[in-house]
Amino acid sequence: LKEETLDPDDWEAMRTTAHRMIDDAITRLSEIRDAPVWKDMPEPVRAAYKETLPLKGQPLDKVFDEIKTNLLPYPMGNIHPRFWMWYMGSSNFTGAMGDFLAAILGSNLGGGNHAAALMDRQVVDWLKTMTGFPAEASGTLTSGGSVANLIGLTVARNEALGQQKIREHGLGDAKLAFYASDQVHGCHLTAMEVLGLGRASLRRLPSKSDYTLDITALRQRIAVDRANGIQPVAIIATAGTINTGAIDDLPALAYVAQDEGLWLHVDGCIGALAAIAPKNGSKLAGLDRADSVALDPHKWLHAPFEVGCCLIKDKAQHIDTFALSQAYLEKELRGVAAADWLHDFGIQTSRGFRALKVWMSLKEHGVEKFGRLIDQNINQAEFLADRIRAAPDLELLAEPVLDIVCFRIRPPDLSDTDIEDLNREVMLRLQEDGIAALSDTRVGSTYALRCAISNHRTRLSDIDILINEIGRLYPKIALKLRMNKDQ
Ligand SMILES: Cc1ncc(COP(=O)(O)O)c(C=O)c1O
């Protein structure tokens, strides 16, 4: 019987193929500014993804040719300088090499006495430094912000109910409540469900006119819940809301949490890393007073997806929540298993080596450059807001605090429904023409175009292109809407 392996028969041929892939990637990325931000896939490309399971193999060169035809020309677009949808980073080549090298090592970061595990701890330590968390705090890298938030809220829930009790017997008849503004990210609703509490346990309090958590309403709701036999657990502050980038009053919320004996969790997936920005870092004052913080290196550190992080101030509370001892995963005094098991810090057993892409980029550029890039994006958002204020038919819908700008096109003689149709059509045309990618939302009840500039490739001239292209597109669409109405 011939023994087989997945290693190539000819390593030199593999070297040539791998170089071809790297060359193609470098060319593609260096020319990204001239590519459309997005383009839809033609039918043959879509059909290719319905092909059935390959039974026999083929040369890797041929596989790569298929990738070049059907995959690489159709990215989501967030590597493009004019992609500003939802909220994500724009990746970077060094980080991509980090992911490649991490895969070459094949490391499972679940546990083990090896260099990748030390680097994982080091990156968590660096994230503590960036956010002002103490060195003795705990933390863990995660798939992203949603899981980072879930981890923080799980520790909060367990501490409130008693670790031993909840871990052994579950919630029982406990009635718990968490508090946030109505701008809180949807992942917290999922977290409530996963924690067995139900969505109603998250009190989403009407936010103030600046879209931050209303502290008077918070105090009142905590009192009402207590009077009704419900146990308040945690305040979820948001540092950078998904809608408008608003930052809750962290020092005031830290005070309320202390006064009420509650956990303070900060969802800093968007804004926490702005703490490293020289001009805007002070907006994050009070972040270090949180009991837990969720943050997202795949956003403003532009690490390739995925990497998030949850920091927990008290290491014992973190470990008490997740520690799991199993005979087949014993820690030894020497050898490969002479290390902490990282499943004691979260919900995964096997874990990918996410730290390397963050580590390499930080080593190459230094944290100061990442801070300047964050300031640069916030400055670009202010520039966009200024251009909107100066345009008679554009309306700014919220004052930008970080890098998110919400606005709409509002010609004087269109109904609210037509204005919404007009804005949506302009957003879709900008995407379909490959010019720029904006997303939409509602600010209050108003339909809004939303531009989130967490992109290290964006230049001020890209903002000019956006404004000019909107100016070119909307009069024709508005005219059509008016004509439809007249008919
Ligand atoms: C404020 C906030 N929290 C949580 C998340 C979820 O993070 P992720 O997409 O990394 O899971 C996001 C995503 O944009 C966010 O903006």
Write out key terms for the chains shown.
7-stranded mixed β-sheet; single chain; alpha/beta; about 475 residues; binds pyridoxal-5'-phosphate
Question: Helices and strands in order, then pairings?
Answer:
Blueprint: H1 11-30, H2 43-48, H3 60-70, H4 93-105, H5 115-131, E1 138-142, H6 145-161, H7 163-169, E2 176-181, H8 187-194, E3 202-205, H9 215-227, E4 231-238, H10 250-260, E5 263-267, E6 292-295, H11 297-300, E7 308-312, H12 315-322, H13 355-365, H14 367-390, E8 394-396, E9 404-409, H15 416-432, E10 439-443, E11 446-452, H16 460-486
Parallel strand pairs: 2-3, 2-4, 4-5, 5-6
Antiparallel strand pairs: 1-7, 6-7, 8-9, 9-11, 10-11
Helix pairs in contact: 4-13, 5-13, 6-7, 6-8, 6-12, 14-16, 15-16
Fraction of residues in helix: 40-55%
How many E strands? 11
Secondary structure category: alpha/beta
Which strands sit side by side, in order, in the main sheet? 1-7-6-5-4-2-3
Distance between the first and last residues' Cα: 79 Å
* Oligomer status: single chain
Run of helices and strands? HHHHHEHHEHEHEHEEHEHHHEEHEEH
The distinct bound ligands, ions and cofactors come out as:
pyridoxal-5'-phosphate
Task: Give me the number of helical elements.
Answer: 16
What is the typical, i.e. mean, pLDDT?
Answer: 97
Main sheet characteristics: 7 strands, mixed
Low-confidence stretches: none
Strand content: 5-15%
**What is Rg?**
25 Å
* Tertiary shape: globular
